[in-house]
Amino acid sequence: HDIAALARALPKAELHLHIEGTLEPELAFELADRHGVTLAYPDVAALRAAYDFDSLQSFLDLYYAGADVLRDEADFYALTRAYLERAHADNVRHVEIFFDPQTHTARGVSLPTMLAGMRRALLEAEARDGISFRLILSFLRHLSEADAIATLELARPFLHRIDGIGLDSSERDHPPSKFQRVFAYCRELGLPVVAHAGEEGPPDYIREALDLLNVSRIDHGVRCAEDPALMARLAREQTPLTVCPLSNLKLRVVDDLREHNLARLLDAGLKVTINSDDPAYFGGYVNDNYVACIEALKLSAGQVVRLAKNSIEASWLDVDAQARLL
Ligand code: ADE
Ligand code: ZN
Predict the structure, then answer these.
(1) Which of 3, 47, 93, 102 has the most CB atoms in a 10 Å sphere around its CB?
(2) Do residues 166 and 98 touch, judged by C-beta distance below 8 A?
């Protein structure tokens, strides 16, 4: 209906998107063929059928296995280009993309290889479709802080091509405090930092991300609702939350989208945004996430406009570039 049409038509920014999570099964098989790799599933339908998760970890196991087909510059280009075509179709005007270098360096793929492929697609989309971009290097929190520090050292010669730092992967038992030193080092280098927190992990992990890591946004953050004082702080400080509704549904953070607290957080004045996280795995790109929320949560036109505006205001674009999109 017309609120869904409004959501599709509004200019939007996507701020929580893992490039490895945009690998559609069709492209996974194409790249596997190209490299002579055998996937654990016989065909596209069988792979897609395996995308039936009961937790963050059950997804991550498949996500890291899928990334094995990404081997050279052309693969990272094809992956990023395919995502940007979907984003453009959804009227996404600005993207801030996570990539997980440790997933690839562990397999012998170099950081310059990943960066070259992603940037070739990003620069093309910027020229062709006017999509602006930032790249966020994300540390894997199930690995050690020493591994994150080594990754940052590896990235030092390329920091002019890296716009910020993130923290993702298995949240439980890997609190933000584990990465306090490497995040301080990143901030000394002038990099803005964000972290996944309060997806599966407790509200205290959100507090740690704010107080120990000095993040400028919280990725997910939906479990803040369990802590009224924290919720009030997030509203007061206008810390953006990059919420991913279909991800939360697929990973059983919520059992039914009608129970999702996105509208409640928005109405409480928090700077909530809608994002797709890992769209190839969770059944939808940005507009699919908007439409699913409009239907499940009966969002009003005003709420939809607020969400799209928030995405632009929560971005790392300067105020003039933001103003051109608002
Ligand atoms: N890596 C990719 N998607 C993720 C998510 N939703 N949470 C944590 N790590 C991730
Ligand atoms: Zn994520």
Answers:
(1) 93
(2) yes
Nearest CA to ligand 1 atom 1: 169
Distance in angstroms (rounded) separating the CA atoms of residues 322 and 319 = 5
Q: Where are the domains of the chain?
A: 2-325
Give the residue numbers marked as catalytic: 199
Over residues 163-185, the pLDDT tens digits come to 999 999 999 999 999 999 999 99
pTM across the whole model = 0.98
What is the identity of the amino acid at 29?
F
Atom of ligand 1 nearest to the CA of 100: 1
Give distance in angstroms: CA of 156 to centre of ligand 2: 24
Query: What would the pLDDT profile of 209-263 be if each residue is shown by its tens digit?
Result: 999 999 999 999 999 999 999 999 999 999 999 999 999 999 999 999 999 999 9
Ligand-binding annotation for 16, yes or no, is: yes
Which residues, 6+ apart, have CB-to-CB distance to 45 below 8 Å? none
Contacts of 267 (CB under 8 A, 6+ apart): 303
Ligand nearest to the CA of 169: 1
- Does 196 contact ligand 1 (Cβ within 6 A)? yes
CATH of the domain spanning 2-325, picked from 3.20.20.100, 3.40.50.720, 3.20.20.140, 3.40.50.300: 3.20.20.140
pLDDT digits (tens, 9 = 90+) for 274-297: 999 999 999 999 999 999 999 999
- Per-residue pLDDT, 1: 75
Find the 196 Cα to ligand 2 centroid distance in Å. Answer: 7
Q: 169 in ligand 1 pocket by Cβ < 6 Å?
A: yes
Residue 86 corresponds to which amino acid? R
Q: Whose CA is nearest to atom 8 of ligand 1?
A: 169
Residue 47 has pLDDT above 90, yes or no: yes
By the 8 A CB rule, do 275 and 289 touch? Answer: yes
